[in-house]
Protein: Glycine--tRNA ligase
Organism: Meganyctiphanes norvegica
Amino acid sequence: PSSVPPVFTFALRGYMRTFYHLGRLTLNSFKSYTPVLSPQVSRSVPKVLVRGVTSSLVCQKGGSPAWGSKKHTAKRKIRLKQLALEMMEPEVEAQLAPLRAKVKEQGDKIRQLKADGAPDVDVKVEVQLLKARKKDLEDMTLKLMPADTFDRAKMSDLIKRRFFYDQSFAIYGGITGQYDYGPMGCDLVDNMLSEWHKHFIIQERMLKVNCSILTPEPVLKASGHVDKFADYMVKDVKTGECFRLDHLIKQHFEKKMSEKKTTQEEKDIMTRKTTLLDGMTMAEMDAILKEYGMKSPLTGNDLTDAMEFNLMFPISIGPSGALKGFLRPETAQGIFVNFKRLLEYNQGKLPFACAQVGNAYRNEISPRSGLLRVREFTMAEIEHFCDPDDKSFPKFASVAHVEMNLYSACAQMDGESAKKMTIGEAVRGSGLSSLGLLQTTSEMETLDSYLCDRSYIIGNEPTQADTTVFQALAPHLPLASHLPHACRWHRHLSSFTDKQQKSFPGEVNTVDELTGGRKKGLVANETLGYYMARIQLFLHKIGIVPRKLRFRQHMNNEMAHYACDCWDAECLTSYGWIECVGCADRSAFDLSQHTKAASVKLCVERPLKEPRMEETVTAVTDKGLVGKAFKKEAKAVTDALANLSISETEELDKTLTAKGEAEVAGYKLTRTMVPSVKREQKKVHVEEIIPSVIEPSFGVGRVFYSLLEHSFRVREDDDKKTYFALPATVCPIKVSVLPLSNKPEFAPFTNQLADSLTEKNITVRVDDSTGSIGRRYARTDEIAVPFGVTVDFDTINNTPHTVTLRERDSTEQVRMPIEEIPETVKRLADGKLLWSEVAAKWPKFTQQETGVTK
Ligand code: AMP
């Protein structure tokens, strides 16, 4: 119709494409553009907030098409390769060996640079090259793996047809990076989260909060998000189209490199620049943009200078617009700012954990890959607060046996694949336990891997532990060449004289003391290891395929400066390895930041072993004057004064004496308000510590999408029949009731059965349509209904009344009395009864005896 603006006609014509917008949604600036980006999707959020930004999410060459675009609907098979976790065939290994060697060579080079104390910038350059080599290895590994055909188009078709989820505002053409969940998607997510609730909140006795999404600016200023949560971008000077700068440069280079006229030398320069992009400053990227005269890939127009684009959605709270804020980019901050109350609720005791599930908002410049990079998504986050000096976990023994696929930073540097080991081994480490013996090859190898870990610190100062190990190795010299880490570490230590070695910091331990005490493992501490294991158990429980799950450790350069250790749970999908859950030891960073910014102590009192005498200096206030001057805020002023450290109070005293006034937490105070300071010697029984935080952070949409891919199946006998083999516990509908005929005699049986199932809170779907039973089964399979009950002529005609119960994945059917159904299905759906047990107990059903009502 003529009244419909062009953009709507465009949408109505059925071209559902990616729409870009400039921060705000301006309909007339909609464009149909899907950026063709390089395969690696990683966000270059600066160091302070590097929170899972380097997912090894690999999308297809040419970028992921927008939902509903032609590319998506094209019947194109994606061959999902199985992962590199199992031992590989020798011939595959042979092909990977040179790439592994290249990664290792680069890893060694970096270690050496660090050992030699090379400048940071040189190390950074080499790290970028290491990343490029790692990616080549990963790509080749995936290429050589046995094919596991996965048809993404087929799955997308099913998801769309049965409305698991779809693009938001689809009738207006849709918006990239925003999705609506339909009935199936909603229920599946709810069930996943209900399992999550049981698994973490109930089992671990966690606290829970539900905090505001509208977050005032000072909170996110303190957390570092205002200053650092940004990507770089440029705009088309005429149309205002926005481009993520690193993507644009990569895309430009890819195009240039494919042109015949580009010389090899030019290609090499571009390759090098591409590998360095991740660590580049905005000015450096801008210089490249200008050097190559890059234009808008859509219009050929000029581009603006590079600018920082903060990924948070700015808002103004209230009608005046005076209170600035943001939609929260993560749920975690809500927990940190409530720490004091949570601690009180927990009777002042550590450790404790608090969880929050809710939406977070990130204004991604180029959202893509369906649900994997969106602008609005649900997070389920846990903040576990513990003593910074004791990160042991009382229940650790209960998970110590859990076997995990761990892809350590060291293995990534050496070009090795992920390794299976128990979390017990990974945390406790077996390295030093055998040091006293060091006789067998495996003991030497264990030592080697311990020293591999240790080799990260060789750029820094060694400690007395290194001296001890160095001496213990003396009888084993020269070290065998297959112990590369030990050799390198030994070489490094040899460069110190005896005297220097004796003066290394740290306690002087004997080998036995080292081996008997806490040993260095791959995973920093028990609490972190415990959560990693629990994350894995949860993901397995909801249906993530074990061999498609690994934990990848952040390399030093990826990790935020304050983090001690960080592991991402990554799921293998047709887009590559996707970071679904981040699990980090964030030390005391967040609470310290908010303590400083809000002038409210977010700390815990820890009893001292022995009481000690301490000097205290407190500001003495004239309460009357302070009350008169600050009225309602007088308490905040006295609290701020009470929270000052000794040195801050002394500084305040000096300033008040010198100038007559001073500012504390934004309040102007005069000498008369604070006439003096009081010095006292006090016997103290407790000390104040800022707790460490271990944070498992789930991206619910990513887990949900991975789960769909992992459970998607096509029936062998009919490739039109597709279904999701989800575990019954998370299936939206647990059972279907299918009367074979719509004759009136069937209705009482069908209705009574459905009612008794509902009474037990079992979700049920009655399908009394006229379609063949086979078609009706296929329809319920598509929406993952795990069990189906068929009421047939034998049910009506024979007593006792029996029905068939069918299991979705095997399509096996058994015959059982109708009254047994509710309890059996309930136990099956709760995971308390296995189908194999049901199949063993009841006779197998082949066909009914009667075909008409008697
Ligand atoms: P982060 O705070 O960046 O470590 O993110 C925590 C988790 O949120 C990640 O492990 C992802 O699963 C998820 N996540 C982060 N960004 C996005 C996004 N743009 N779209 C969907 N999920 C995301």
